[in-house]
Amino acid sequence: MPAKPRHKLHPARKKFTRFASRAPFQFGLPNVSPTLGQSSDGSPIYFTRTTSLLRQQALATAPSVQIKSDAFHPRVLPRAAWSETDFAKSSVLFLIPDDALGDCVGMVLFFRAFAQKYPDAKIAVLNSASASDIFATVADIEIFQLFISSKQLARFDHVIDLSEMEGWDTITLMPVNPEESLCTAFAISPIALPARQPMAKPGMNIGILPMASSPLRTLPPALVRDIAQMLGNAGHQITLILNAYQGVMRAYKDSIAADKLENVTIIDGFRTIGELIGFMEKQDYVVLADSGPAHITKLFQTPGLGIYTSAAAKVLQGRHTNLRNWQSTYRGDFCAAPCGLAKLRATSDGQIGCMGSLKVPFEKLGNLPAASNKALAEKMVVSSTVPCVSHLQSDPDAIFQILDEDLKILATP
């Protein structure tokens, strides 16, 4: 039997919806592998995050569903108890704070270390949502992508809310490294990593993934085109991966005009994150923006080049050296790279951008924009990139030199 916690449980930070259903139901997100879908189990009550798509889109209109409460907070093990608790032979449910790919990769690496220290513990995650395929790379993990039943919840010895990790409340301003932070919080040593060994050879499979969820981190199209052309001309098989889920993908693709480049195959996007993970595992080398795929390389230690702008490469890559890192060196009157911003912000009068693009100090920026603006987003990833992104094109030869050191392409006839 697992030892009883020495600290009193307290409510989780996030609110959950308690609901009942008179009819059986099943649910799964479209960009998650179908094998990770969920079904009801006859329990009297179920729980889902109040902000989840299940609550907002499905439950609200389902005639067989009765909402009991939108203010349920599971009782969780407090942050102070994480490093003091012996989880051996325990069943532990981790509440996932969000489904950002990079953050979830860091959590997966922590789970690997957790399982290494506690091989007889049973690990499960709740709220994994679109990142469920990432968590599926952990052996013997139980995944509740959107909801959990009262019967299932009662099985767990411990429930842990990972949003209590230091830095999570300011993560949109200053990114943190979840693997490092969680291993420290639980007093667990991270798993060992192999040395970085890119193997230059003819006809390599090289993936280029230039798009991030924010214009602050998406690579300039002209630079991407030049890199793809250089690698293609060297005889490698290049796959340019875009993101069909982002509204700016079409304009970005047209701007690169990669369909005219030799040895370059374009994929508009993958149907599921699982397909993206499978692609990343098979690549000999990758060139990436600061994005979820850059973090996915940590799972396989795929070698490559990560190009960073507003966020700090050293923070995001942490101890992982499989990627060579190139950091924008932009310096301006209102900011310098890396500034720490992960996403665009809005001023009080509705202007959207960053310190450098709007020419204002950080104090003039407010919260994240309340609504999306497709026209502005397209403009900022194609023709009016923010200063730290534009600055990447001021010295492309330095970036090409890194690629040559790894792949020996500049001397290719």
From TrEMBL:
It holds the Pfam family Glyco_transf_9. GO terms for cellular component: cytosol. Keywords: Glycosyltransferase, Transferase. GO terms for molecular function: ADP-heptose-lipopolysaccharide heptosyltransferase activity. GO terms for biological process: lipopolysaccharide core region biosynthetic process. InterPro entries: Glyco_trans_9 (IPR002201), LPS_LOS_Heptosyltrfase (IPR051199). It comes from the Bacteria. Transmembrane segments: none annotated. This is Heptosyltransferase. It comes from Thalassospira lohafexi.
